[in-house]
Amino acid sequence: MKRKPNLKWLRGVDWEKGSQGDLAVLIAGACLLLIIASIGFDSLLEEEEKPMPDFALIENISERKSAFFEYMLPFVEEANYEILKQRDEIKRIQSAFQRGARISRRDRARIDELLEEYKFDPVEELSEETFRHLLTRADEIPPSLALSQAALESAWGTSRFAKEGFNLFGMWCYEPGCGVVPNRRPKGKTYEVVRYESPRDSFLAYFRNLNTNRYYLEMRAIRRAHRNQDLAVSGIDLAEGLDRYSQEGYRYISKVRSLIHSNQLTRLD
User: Fold this and answer.
1) Which of 145, 169, 190, 265 could form a disulfide with 206 if both were Cys (CB 3.0 to 4.6 A apart)?
2) What single-letter DSSP state applies at residue 265?
């Protein structure tokens, strides 16, 4: 649910007399409204995240699946929106670099931030390789892939880890107390299942994992090849690079693809 814009600053304005103070308020307010209109309310108003439903209470399987996808899809769309904005930034600066234009300090600092975010070493000088590497990682994850994995890893939002720690993708951590201790954790193992503050945080971590972890080099290579050939990026195709996401290997890939097909998730890509 979005918060309504706060227009209390308009209260007490004398609309008829129009004193200098009132006019100043009106001018400032008009400028603010123009800014809001130009960039959209969505970027200025905070979103209040709805509590995650107790999916286990939805007995009808079809209704449970529908509720799961309806609740989770906005997190995928939000993450992809932010990544594609980054991608546009990279392409803009890359275009200037290719033209031989001067790269501003601000743009250079932004590239440095993105290199760090996507787990690359700093570079002294920008090169075409710098942009190519960034564009390989700063790219979207198809909704069909994200939603199918969330459903598999969280048992449609009913798993203990989903309920206690909003962990929808089976992500691990290794510091004592960092998450939820699995009941069947083998003796001598110290890993825990990450506890997140919200489902949104779980999705953001998942996106970061697929876009930076060396285990998913093949997935990113498939995505890059599709981009180079101007082909649509689909979850069915990218699933091929997820054999190291689970100990099940290629059987896991089959499960992901089967879930995408059976729930007609390709329509979301």
Assistant:
1) 169
2) G
